[in-house]
């Protein structure tokens, strides 16, 4: 699952991951991911250790299984408070699938869900799915999250909700993907 084998990604060389220091292929998409990581640390004041990146997630729809990657999960007080998904192009078309991902990666609803193309962003309330803010400048910052954390429900995801969210994520993220997308691994 490496971008080097994806013909849609022009590899411009190598770069160091902002969060981990690991050397990665330098692609336009990776540059956007690095920009987002930097903003989370520098502007939003999260510690690098509070941000997980490139997280594998198994998505199941009936007998079908696939693995995808989630770009960022932000952790505050031992809870994931934000899921951030990068995808080039229209962010509106990714709203439903990103919200679905926020309902299958943890046993609770992640309170803040962000969809970004690296130039713009939609920030959603996880429980309702409503857009609460737009723009990369409005990514959640640590200080405001710490003030609001007691109001987050972290509502448990029941089996029916998990199944529906998994099917939506599979349909949008796997069935709707380009056949040469190397960030997706279909498991037989």
Explain what you see.
The protein is of the alpha+beta class and 188 residues long. It has one domain: tt1808, chain A, CATH 3.90.1570. The chain has helices at residues 28-42, 95-101, 142-148, 159-175; strands spanning 14-16, 23-25, 51-61, 64-76, 79-86, 112-116, 121-125, 131-134, 185-187. Strands 3, 4, 5, 6, 7, 8 and 9 form a 7-stranded mixed beta sheet that branches. Strand 1 and strand 2 form a beta hairpin. Helix 2 (95-101) crosses helix 4. 29% of the residues are buried.
Overall pLDDT confidence: 90
Strand content: 25-35%
CATH architecture: Alpha-Beta Complex
Tally of helical runs: 4
In short:
24% of the residues lie in helices and 29% in strands. With 188 residues, the chain is α+β, with helices and mostly antiparallel strands. The chain has one domain: tt1808, chain A (Alpha-Beta Complex), CATH 3.90.1570.
């Amino acid at each position: 699952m490496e971008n080097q084998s994806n013909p849609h990604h022009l590899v411009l060389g190598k770069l160091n991951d902002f969060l981990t220091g690991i050397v990665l292929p330098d692609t336009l998409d990776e540059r956007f991911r690095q920009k987002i990581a930097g903003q989370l640390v520098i502007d939003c004041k999260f510690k690098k250790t509070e941000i997980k990146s490139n997280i594998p997630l198994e998505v199941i729809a009936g007998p079908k299984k696939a693995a995808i990657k989630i770009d960022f999960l932000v952790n505050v007080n031992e809870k994931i408070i934000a899921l951030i998904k990068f995808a080039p192009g229209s962010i509106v078309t990714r709203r439903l699938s990103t919200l679905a991902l926020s309902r299958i990666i943890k046993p609770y609803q992640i309170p803040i869900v962000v969809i970004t193309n690296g130039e713009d962003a939609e920030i959603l309330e996880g429980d309702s799915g409503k857009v609460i803010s737009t723009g990369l400048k409005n990514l959640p910052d640590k200080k405001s999250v710490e003030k609001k954390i007691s109001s987050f429900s972290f509502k448990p995801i029941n089996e029916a909700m998990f199944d529906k969210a998994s099917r939506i994520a599979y349909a949008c993220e796997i069935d709707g993907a380009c056949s040469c997308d190397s960030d997706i691994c279909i498991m037989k």
